[in-house]
């Protein structure tokens, strides 16, 4: 059950961080304005909070593993919202990142 909670928190963190960064990007690069930028900043703050809810107590481990989730989530976000189409090397790299997440977070430890 802790693994499922952890995965759900990683997904929520990715939505907050990637979504927040995307909102800031849209506000600045696409000239959508301060409401977009401010919304992005709030979402980025939520990401920082969600990361603290992970069951594992080690900051470094959580953020290292989240890096792999961020890679996969960023490619998925770009595909869903920006029309980006990952090539096979993007997909292979993302799968390698997910394997790293699994080893870092869910390998049996004493």
UniProtKB/TrEMBL annotation:
Compartment(s) where it occurs, according to its Swiss-Prot or TrEMBL record: Cell membrane
SUPFAM superfamilies membership: Multidrug resistance efflux transporter EmrE
Keyword flag Transmembrane helix: yes
Membrane-topology descriptor: Multi-pass membrane protein
GO CC field: plasma membrane
Pfam families for this protein: UPF0060
Major site of localization recorded for this protein: membrane
Keyword terms, alphabetized: Cell membrane, Membrane, Transmembrane, Transmembrane helix
TM helices/strands, residue ranges: 33-50, 62-79, 91-108
Entry coiled-coil feature ranges: none
Family affiliation: Belongs to the UPF0060 family.
HAMAP family (UniProt xref): UPF0060
Cross-referenced NCBIfam families: PRK02237.1 (NF002586)
Record-given protein name: UPF0060 membrane protein
Species assigned in the record: Amycolatopsis taiwanensis
């Amino acid at each position: 059950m802790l693994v499922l909670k952890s995965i759900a928190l990683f997904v929520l963190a990715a939505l907050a961080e990637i979504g927040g960064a995307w909102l800031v990007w849209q506000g600045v690069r696409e000239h959508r304005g301060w409401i977009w930028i401010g919304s992005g900043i709030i979402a980025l703050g939520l990401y920082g909070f969600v990361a603290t809810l992970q069951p594992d107590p080690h900051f470094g481990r959580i953020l290292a593993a989240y890096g792999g989730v961020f890679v996969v989530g960023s490619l998925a976000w770009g595909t869903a919202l920006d029309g980006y189409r990952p090539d096979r090397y993007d997909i292979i790299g993302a799968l390698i990142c997910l394997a790293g997440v699994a080893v870092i977070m869910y390998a049996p430890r004493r």
